[in-house]
Amino acid sequence: MRNVFEKIQELEVIPGYSKHEQLVQGFINSIDAKILVKGDQLPSVNVMIRETGFARETIVKGYKELIERGIIESKRGMGYYISNIDTGQPVKVALILYAFDSIQETFYNAFRDLLVPDVQVDVFFHHQNIDTFESIINNISGKYGMYVVTPMPHPRTAGILKVLPVHKFLMIDRFEPVAGDFSYVTQEFEASSYQVFVELLDRIRSFEEMIFFSRPNSDLPVEIMKAFKRFVKDHDIKYQVKKEYLPGSVEKGKVYFICNDRQLWTMLKDCTTQGIKPGEEVGILSQDDDPIKEFICDGITTYSTDFQLMAQKAAQFVLGQEKIQEVIPTVLKRRSSL
């Protein structure tokens, strides 16, 4: 390890190098010179202070930058290790999503396109499984420069996420309370859903009954159900809550609130087969907008947050590394189905 300290000291004579830059570049030069190889353990912070004379905050800052570049990783209780000998490695971003559905795909494509070409984005999916979520977070902690996470509502979520450095962590989509002054770009579900229902009240009243499809223990935010229950009570709307849409069960005179796109496509197919006109004989409201919903069956009424804008804000956080705390508005798009 003596040769590593020498590589750091060599940079002292180069004008313009701060001690932090000397440290980072010294390790990079040591890797390029094959003094350090993948898997090698780096000196502890205390050893670095003793050998270089640098301040503790300088050492810590240098190690953090090397982690952000994906060159080293931190193993809890074991120190720092060389994880990548490609010293041109850019900032690595871990993006944790629910699943690769159309909405998550919209976010990912916009997010990736907005980042500079040499930013590496690795995508992980937790599929609303808390054990999978915990395994992902534990496996990636200390290995990435930035963490962009769609959390899941669960009592264990806050404890799982506390291992991520708060200044490198961005919560997206759903908001879950976590310790610390963390960054987030999320949407709101209860008040916005209720407001959408109220805006559509006249059209909803023109049908006999409102049916909401919601499976127990699904990934649908519970706030939407709370808003729905409050709305039908406040406005005396006849309603049913069903677990799922069963093929062939569409009925005239009903207004359907569907949050699952697979079930929506099945209902629309049944409407076409049975000659039922959405917007006239049945009403349909869908959560989360999608380009195809603008055109299919003359347009499906939707309400959704702007995932393109959410992706833009997330990309700005990654590139600028400045704290952000923002709730993206929900927008109702009225089309012929309701």
TrEMBL record:
Q: Which InterPro entries match?
A: LacI/GalR-like_sensor, Peripla_BP_I, Tscrpt_reg_HTH_GntR, WH-like_DNA-bd_sf, WH_DNA-bd_sf
Q: Does the keyword Transcription regulation apply?
A: yes
Q: Return one GO MF term.
A: DNA binding
Q: Which SMART domains match?
A: HTH_GNTR (SM00345)
Name of the protein:
DNA-binding transcriptional regulator, LacI/PurR family
**UniProt keyword terms in alphabetical order:** DNA-binding, Transcription, Transcription regulation
Organism whose genome encodes this protein: Pedobacter caeni
- Record-linked Gene3D superfamilies: 3.40.50.2300, Winged helix-like DNA-binding domain superfamily/Winged helix DNA-binding domain
Its domain of life reads Bacteria
Give every HTH gntR-type domain span: 17-85
